[in-house]
Amino acid sequence: MVGLPADIEGYREYVAARLDPLRRTAYLLCEDWHTADDLVSTALVKLLRHWRRVSAMDNPDAYVRRTLLRTWLDERRRPWRREAAWAEVPDRAVRAATEATADRVTILALLADLPPRRRAVLVLRYFCDLSVEETAHELGCSVGTVKSQSARAIEALRGRLVTARTKPREAEEHG
Predict the structure, then answer these.
(1) Rounded distance, CA 68 to CA 55, Å?
(2) pLDDT per residue as tens digits for the range 34-63
(3) Is residue 100 packed enough to be buried (19+ CB in 10 Å), middle (13-18) or exposed (0-12)?
(4) Which listed site, 25, 146, 161, 173, has its alpha carbon 20 to 30 Å from 128?
(5) Burial of 5 (0-12, 13-18, 19+ CB in 10 A)
């Protein structure tokens, strides 16, 4: 094939080893598995184009994470992503029986309500386990911005989580 890098096997091995974590990261960013797959596909095509250069880097994972993040932010800016047309209002997902799963669903929903930048900071810091400095580098901002965005995002999540947990109890007491 024309245009493929010389080390195509290295690329395949790299992608095979990291595909699932990339999909999970993309899902945490966009909260939709189909969109997550699209984001990962786009990021991997970009990686393939630059594989020769990226494979020589000390940390190719950082390049792929940044590419994935920028791809997601670019998609968020597209006008058709701001609109949702529904013939009928969709039913809500049934809550899971276990508390841990219910908490996870609640946290994912609360994470989805955060602005994209704060959400990206939390995903990079706590899911991808990047340092404050690495997160700042990935997002192209200062360390102080990462710290303030993290603090504000966590504060917002805590407040919303408390509210989300008290609503079902109030309904039980009044019902």
Answers:
(1) 17
(2) 999 999 999 999 999 999 999 999 999 999
(3) exposed
(4) 161
(5) middle
- Write out pLDDT tens, residues 63-122: 999 999 999 988 887 766 555 666 776 666 554 455 666 677 777 888 888 999 999 999
> For residue 83, which phi and psi values (nearest 5 degrees)?
-115, 145
- Around 44, how many Cα atoms within 13 Å sit in the side-chain half-sphere? 20
Question: Tokens 């900071």 sit at which residue?
Answer: 121
**77/46 Cα distance (integer angstroms):** 19
**Assessment of whether the complete model's pTM goes beyond 0.85:** no
Nearest to 21 by CA among 138, 128, 130: 128
Please work out, in degrees rounded to the nearest 5, the angle formed at the alpha carbon of residue 112 by the alpha carbons of 63 and 115: 70
Give which of 93, 135, 132 is closest to 112, Cα–Cα: 93
Q: What tokens appear for 10 in the block?
A: 């290295």
Please name which of 107, 119, 92 lies closest in space to residue 160, comparing C-alpha atoms. 107
Q: Which two tokens stand for residue 23?
A: 């999909």
